[in-house]
Fold these 4 entries.
Entry 1:
Amino acid sequence: MPLEDKVPLMVEWWSAAHELLVEQGIQRKLLAGAVSQSGAKLRGGYGEFFGRLKRRDVPVLIFSAGLGDVLQEILKQNNVLSSNLSIRANFMHFNEEGLLQGFKEPLIHTFNKGEGHLASPTHTAHDRPNVLLLGDSLGDVSMADNLTNVMNVLRIGFLNDKVEERRAAYSSSCDIVLESGLLLLV
């Protein structure tokens, strides 16, 4: 399916998913406990990775089509949320009582991560000549396309499912592919 046909369907799908979450009556005060009990974990070596980036004041932008509040809580509970880290994701909007009312704009989905969401005055990645891009979707490989002053982009793809089916596409789009703990240099 051509990309121009996929995008409206992606917006429709994410909008419907967000509406379903609103209908669940999610309370902000329960998020930390839900994350803690979820079993969500970061990949091995995350502490050293984030620690080195923090010590060298390397800006880190985490760009996700997922729930920003949940991602932020995972990072917080793993003690890696820091001043050099910025998150662009779908953040929830809660009312004064802490009840989920909707989601903040813009809607971020797999195919719009490179559409200028990086042009924030609070994020300095656009001033850097080198980018390490990590993603788990083929839509992620274009995230750095609109950054200015970029000379080098190293694209690392996490191939987590449908490995045999997607290996060729990942290998042609990424510089390095990680699949189920294996490293493929392409």
Note: The two ends are 26 Å apart (CA to CA).
Entry 2:
Amino acid sequence: MEVIDILPANFGYVILTYLYSWIMLCYLAVKVGAARKKYNVKYPTMYSDKENVFNCIQRAHQNTLEVYPQWLVFQTIAALVYPTVASVLGVIWVTSRFSYAWGYYTGDPSKRMNGSYGYIGLFGVMILTISVALQLLGFI
């Protein structure tokens, strides 16, 4: 039996969502690299003592990396049973990370909340993951 035979029919959407998330991570990383040049922040320095905008650009990327592993786990578990819904929720979360970053890039950290709609995607896949767990345990 092959993986193609085991995965749900619409799991291809999930794979495309993962690819979209990879594009988002690359975009955020490139922005940090460009900001390092612009604000003259050399490696391995993580934050600048002088350039708040650089720190905001760095934090947008770093915060996304901090939550990304958890999102991947929840996204994957949810998608094994609910591939289409999980993909929609995943696209919401990934898109929100762009909005989060663009708000942060202004240098005003409060504008990162432009991406707060991403909690719909994150909490959505968390709820679906709980549903999968309860199904496996025979509670629903």
Note: The two ends are 28 Å apart (CA to CA).
Entry 3:
Amino acid sequence: MSSDFETYEQDFGTVTAELTNKIGRIPKLAGEEKTQLVLNVDKQLEEVRELLEQMDLEVREIPIPSRGMYNSRLKSYKQEVEKLEKDFKRSRIAYSDEVRNELLGDDVGSSENQLIKLREERAHLLDNTERLERSSRRLEAGYQIAVETEQVGQEILSNLHTDREKIQRARERLRETDANLGKSSRILTGMLRRIIQNRVLVFVLGAFILLTIILAIYFNLRAH
């Protein structure tokens, strides 16, 4: 499982390096060329999110003792993607000096008005971006809690399954012990019965011998 995670890591590194380069180029472009690059970056960001989901699934399959290290790496990758998304949002509304001059033209008054308008729109967009990022962080925190809760639940179920097996084995041993005790009880009862029978037989035999001796003495004395 860890080999698959490392493969996703390599793909993640390649794609994020390309994204960093492209995001840095966006403010230097305008018009259709900028639009196409923005669409391309947006598509690659979606690929990066899918890679994170695949890595998250791989981490869940890793044994619990080794899972902590991979969770830390995955967390750092998520933070890196958050930074890329933030830079991307800012780059979409940012312009280099060369592009800004080209858009504003030579009309000073019009340029100042457009510049003010652009700054206001940029501030508004940045404010919305910050709100979206806060919501995204809350969702991410909720998702992390859900994942940790699932892991704890799996551990509890595993422990319950182990305890159940122990209880079943204990019950089986109790049944075997009960069976052995029952067998021993029957054997002891039979032995006790035979002992009583032997004692009765000895008593009867002793009485018979004593009676014979008494009769022999009686008849011997009577004969004299």
Note: The helical segments are 2-25, 31-61, 64-92, 97-104, 108-223.
Entry 4:
Amino acid sequence: MENSLSVSNMQDPSSSPSEKQLDSANGNGDLDSEDGSSLEEIGFNWGDYLEETGMRAAPHTSFKHVEISIQSNFQPGMKLEVANKNNPDTYWVATIITTCGQLLLLRYCGYGEDRRADFWCDVVIADLHPVGWCTQNNKVLMPPDAIKEKYTDWTEFLIRDLTGSRTAPANLLEGVCIAILHLLYL
């Protein structure tokens, strides 16, 4: 796999530090060059480097966090049930706003477009479940305190909010649990 590496003012190693400094900057913090930049691009090849140095590449198993993030398949807009931050014995429906590897930016349903209460959670350690999990497991589904008074009938609100929405499939969440167990027992 080839990678580009930028190197500034490759100079004779025998030049003094003051000569290098004078050659690389014109006193205004700008690099001297006819083109406005003294950066040169040179090719870098990891395969060649490893061969020349006699080193070995780190195995893919060293990067388990990357495997989990690549395989997560969570998508913005998906709904799931998550523990309330201020009352962890209760749960509420949240929407995935964005993903960043194994991190999800979530917004509790009922906040509309208000981003002030958005929060990040790690799919590996967060208490996340597919929509319907609370009902199946006799857990309390309750809106966060900050929006409790916003609607009089939360059941009706959820029916409207969830109708036509995509829920995070149970197999995604089960896959995360399996990956966690796999990591723990390696």
Note: The helical segments are 17-24, 46-53, 64-71, 133-136, 154-162, 170-184.
